[in-house]
Design brief:
This protein is α+β, with helices and mostly antiparallel strands. The protein folds into two domains: about 140 residues, MutM-like, N-terminal (N-terminal domain of MutM-like DNA repair proteins, Alpha-Beta Barrel); about 130 residues, Helicase, Ruva Protein, domain 3 (Orthogonal Bundle), CATH 1.10.8. It has a four-stranded antiparallel beta sheet with strand order 1-6-7-5, covered by helices on one side. Strands 2-3-4-8 form a four-stranded antiparallel beta sheet. A two-stranded antiparallel sheet has the order 9-10. The chain is globular, with a radius of gyration of 20 Å. The two termini are about 30 Å apart. The structure holds a DNA duplex (16 and 16 nucleotides).
Length: about 290
DNA sequence: CGTACGACCTGCCCGC
DNA sequence: TGCGGGCAGGTCGTAC
């Protein structure tokens, strides 16, 4: 599923359900994810209480009482599902789903109050790793990440500085996690539409007005998506928490040949593949 | 060094 | 109906 909004929704839901709970057992059905589940994973985690669940970029960080942190990434198709076989009311909530194939339930965490957190990931691009709290700032996954895009973390001056020194396209740059962390293909397209900038525009050619719009659009698009619970597309419906609704507000993503939704624009949305990813934009109003 | 691209993996959808 | 090709919300290792 996941770009920043989806990962953040997942984090919040996980936090709500597992904070201060104790992991009683873990079942590893398939350790062969993007990286193999560490051999000592069970040994380190079973019996531990969850202290906190945080997010950095698209990584979910599950803090344990013993100062270990589970670092989880959902890849393209990873999702957490929460089940409680002993509570019939629980089954009625949106946190439970059986819309996915249990064939890809790779990990199952059993908690003290009889519910299970299941990690399901058909493509297995996601993974679980472990590190220690004090070493997180030098962790190989987290160390090189660019600033978080929300709030005051992302400074306009940073955008001005960084866009100036590269000949890459602005969309490629937005999706580069070392530049800004958390933005993927959907939100890069939507952000650039709002900012009225063509995805294939060379970063260094952006002017101050465009960078100002870009800065604003990054925040606006992600905040709006977060508010709607992220985006749920295709068959990826069953992330933890309720289905997202931002897909209903897509202006360009997956809208090839459809009318541009900007007021007074008569353009059509085009789809162009560059560097292996589909870009969607309006030829009329994005420059 | 910066940048582009293939590889990793499964499932779905479309055209023949 | 079956099969092949292309597509999918990500990121890393490699090659230039």
């Amino acid at each position: 599923m996941p770009e920043l909004p989806e990962v953040e929704v997942t984090r919040r839901t996980l936090l709500k359900f597992i904070k201060n709970k104790v992991i009683k057992n873990i079942k590893i059905n398939n350790p062969n994810l993007r990286f193999k589940v560490p051999a000592d994973f069970k040994k380190i985690i079973i019996g531990q209480k969850i202290v906190n669940v945080l997010r950095r970029s698209k990584y979910i960080l599950i803090y344990l009482e013993n100062n270990y942190v589970i670092i989880s990434h959902l890849g393209m198709s990873g999702k957490f599902l929460i089940k409680n076989n002993y509570d019939k009311d629980f089954l009625k909530t949106s946190y439970y789903s059986n819309e996915f194939s249990s064939k890809h339930n790779h990990l199952e965490f059993l908690f003290s109050n009889n519910f299970r957190v299941i990690y399901n990931d058909p493509r297995r691009f996601g993974f679980f790793a472990l590190d220690i709290v004090s070493k997180l700032d030098i962790n190989k996954f987290l160390r090189k990440l660019g600033p978080e895009p929300l709030g005051r973390n992302l400074k306009k001056d940073y955008l001005i500085l960084k866009t100036k020194i590269t000949q890459r396209t602005i969309k490629t740059l937005l999706m580069d996690q070392h530049f800004i962390s958390g933005i993927g293909n959907i939100y890069a397209n939507e952000i650039l539409f709002m900012a009225k900038i063509k995805p294939n525009k060379i970063s260094s050619r952006l002017n101050l007005v465009e960078i100002t719009r870009l800065h604003l659009s990054i925040n606006k698009v992600l905040i709006r998506a977060l508010k709607l619970g992220g985006s749920s597309i295709k068959d990826f419906k069953s992330l933890v928490g309720q289905k997202g609704r931002f897909q209903n507000e897509f202006k360009v993503y997956d809208r090839e040949d459809l009318k541009c939704l900007r007021a007074r624009c008569s353009g059509l949305i085009v789809r162009v593949v560059s560097q292996g990813r589909a870009s969607f934009f309006c030829n009329e109003c994005q420059n």
